[in-house]
TrEMBL record:
Signal sequence coordinates: none
Taxonomic superkingdom: Eukaryota
Every NmrA-like domain range: 5-243
One function term, GO molecular function aspect: oxidoreductase activity
Organism this protein belongs to: Diplogelasinospora grovesii
This protein's UniProt keywords: NADP, Oxidoreductase
CDD domains (UniProt xref): PCBER_SDR_a
One Pfam family linked to the record: NmrA
Identification of the protein by name: NmrA-like domain-containing protein
């Protein structure tokens, strides 16, 4: 039975990474945050974490930093996901037992042949590479994690289309489609759950969620808690898909947000996480409550 006690986190200073570092520390893992030379974000790291500087493009620098680590969790930002191949090679050379790549979004295993899969090609390639490397090195394992949308983060940034300040909402199609969503601390707990269940999670691509939710459900909760009606506008998924695909044809990767909205919200999209596909039970990760998440967001935003 594999035991994981020491964990190196790449990108631990980021939006999601800080939550992963915090949850790993709270669960008793010895955590080392690896950060780029000159990173201005190390003040975001909680007390109790060791901090080491690495050169993400150097095999030797990464191998030295991974020495003595049981697991590497990569939470590098989207622009840096291509650097992970060298990190995988360095992890194997350092004797790391488990590598978790920077996935944390839609299930990239299922979109390889779709337009959105073109934008996610680098992430898809890293999981392919991990599969190949784990076959060659049986003591090296990996786990991928799809979490769906960052829900608390998305609400705060307004990218879920709900704006309680100006009392508006923009939905896709009917707004009734449910999709997979996760709060950032919950994803941190999911990483803890994976590393506490190393045998059950080895060489698997897993899916977890805080909950499945629809745009109309969020709107109903906002209206109930704030006591005001939102002005709701709707866009058709066919129109959004066309906009996204036209942008993509011109090499404009801002298409991602359009195609992501179609992926999640279009009527019939079918991207809610089914109980059958969910790994929440496997890693003992409880589901969360949509209403209390929305309530906490409204309260912090001063909207209730
Ligand atoms: N599901 C969703 O809704 C959703 C939303 C956003 C992101 N994501 C995914 O979640 C993962 C983490 O995203 P995030 O938003 O947490 O990441 P982020 O905050 O943008 O970046 C995380 C860290 O990556 C490090 N980094 C290394 N090389 C970098 C480079 N070349 N440019 C910029 N940063 C670099 C930085 O750490 P140092 O400065 O310490 O080196 C940074 O703090 C990614 O896979 C992303 O695609 C999912």
């Amino acid at each position: 039975m594999v035991s994981i006690k020491t964990v190196a986190v790449l990108g631990g200073t980021g939006n999601l990474g800080t939550h992963i570092v915090q949850e790993l520390l709270s669960a008793g893992f010895a955590v080392t945050a690896l950060t780029r030379e000159g990173s201005s974000s190390t003040d975001k790291l909680p007390a109790g974490v060791e901090v080491k500087t690495v050169d993400y493009t150097s095999f030797d620098s990464l191998r030295a930093a991974f020495s003595g680590q049981d697991a590497v969790v990569s939470v590098v930002g989207t622009t840096a996901v291509g650097n992970q191949k060298i990190a995988v090679d360095a992890a194997i050379a350092a004797g790391v037992k488990r590598f978790i790549p920077s996935e944390f979004g839609i299930n990239t295993r299922e979109v390889r042949d779709r337009p959105i899969g073109k934008i996610l090609a680098v992430k898809i390639g890293i999981v392919d590479y991990l599969q190949e490397k784990a076959k060659e090195n049986p003591s090296f394992t990996w786990t991928g994690l799809t979490t769906g949308s960052f829900f608390d983060w998305g609400l705060q940034l307004g990218i879920l289309g709900i704006n309680p300040k100006d009392q508006t909402a923009n939905i896709v199609d009917s707004g009734n489609e449910k999709w997979q969503a996760s709060n950032l601390p919950q994803i941190g707990k999911g990483i803890v759950g994976i590393l506490q269940h190393p045998d059950e999670t080895a060489n698997k691509y897993l899916a977890t969620a805080s909950f499945n939710v629809s745009q109309n459900e969020i709107i109903a909760i906002v209206e109930e808690l704030s006591g005001s009606k939102l002005t709701v506008t709707s866009q058709s998924s066919a129109e959004l898909r066309k906009i996204g695909e036209e942008k993509l044809a011109k090499g404009d990767y801002s298409a991602f947000l359009d195609l992501l909205r179609v992926h999640n919200y279009a009527d019939g999209a079918g991207n809610a996480l089914s109980e059958e596909k969910s790994a929440n039970k496997l890693i003992e990760l409880p589901y969360e409550d949509v209403r209390s998440t929305v309530q906490s967001w409204l309260s912090k935003a001063g909207a209730i």
